[in-house]
Amino acid sequence: MHYVSLIIEFLRGRPRFVFWAATLTQAALWVLVPSLTYSSPPGDVPTLLATGHELLLGSERGPPLAFWLGELAFRVAGIVGVYILAQACIVATYWAVFTLGRAIVGIRHAVLAVLLMVGIAAFTMPTANFGPSVLAAPFWALSLLFYWRALEGRRDAWFLLAITLGVLLLSSLVGVILLGLMILFTLSTAEGRRALLHPEPWVASVLFAIVVFPFGLWAARNHEIVLAGILGPDTTGHSALWLASLISGTHLGMMLLIALASGFPRHTKQQAPEIDRTMPVGTAARIYIYTFAIVPMLVAVAVAAALHRAGPLAPVAPLVVLSTLAIMVFAGDRVRLFRERIVSSAWLGFLTIPPALAAFSIVLTPWVTKSELATAQPSRAEAAFFAEAFTRRTGKPLRYVAGDPQVAPLIAVAAPMRPHVYFDWAPQQSRWATPEDIKRDGGVLVWPAPGTARNPPQRLLDQFPGLVPEVPQTFRRPVNGLLPPVRLGWAVIRPAQ
Known about the structure:
With about 500 residues, the protein is α/β, with parallel strands linked by helices.
């Protein structure tokens, strides 16, 4: 008797349940694991919150929406709110791909496309590091959904497309790629040119302009800041090759699942459960999916090659939104799933192993390597100490913190009164604070002081002449392992009398 896994049976009989179960399970795991195990926010989240705290209309880091929403989520629910916001973006992305897939390949193959997205690394572990790329992914996917509906003749979809495209550009400049491709696609296809004969696309373009107008006006007046963000220093080297490798690498899990499900090599008479397509895929739909799944990645690599830097293209989540749906279009009307036990186990592994590794790494990494995890820093103890020390010496709450680009934002996030972060390592990116502000209102400077080191970096001495370093302070990590305690040098800048 041929074995058919429970996932296959549910996929055939209750595909919508499979979609929501898989999507919400992944989201729940990536909310619970960081919330319960991370002692500090991951990646660039502290810097994002430090920038969002200033409520700027734009910065070298890109359009403002991700920073605003991150700050709002943090004010409402703390760092857990940021994790929830990140996973809400992923759920919305999966829903948009699922809904677009239902219209093109049918509900069963649409669910298969979403299940394959668990194998795309950009939609799993990196999503805890909320930022413009994570926020751009759902609006990229929603724009593709509404654009397809508009091309099919649903004229009201043009207005939804205008809003999602506008919000996409307020999330990340990578949206320029999608906007440009949609314009070219509209002009080069019969469906697009036919749609332009109606008033809705033109009215929607006005709505789009209204959505992006405030940021567009700011970008026009501060074009040097926008260019500085795009043309910033290249930290990757060989940017085009690096970006192409990153795009390829993020698909490795998906390719492994496809290879296992193909059963190659297999016997000609080997049996396998079949997932039939409930509707044929037309030529126009096939061209649409292939175009918007492949061309954005090629354009991003070409831009990186032309500029010699990846810039805002480095986080690739928006670029790979349609990869799995393109695979399902290519797979044909009947998908045979060989080795369903192994495939089911591998899929569950991709769903559960990354969050499990993220949790266990907090405990295990300090015992097997001397590298430090950003998510295992004692930021709360550090923030409490420096905020209390400043208040005790000056009688005022801590308003500014500066120094190390990793430590200073962490302290600002965990401190009771949310001090401002002065980016002394990049003063041109810290337009909300200057050394004179810190000298007037006071602040704390912090820097790593491993071993017997005590003196601050030269850049701090140049910007704050006469600062007197305090005795370095040590902090215990959540798990020390083979690592020494965190040792930070610090200095208090007293407020001007």
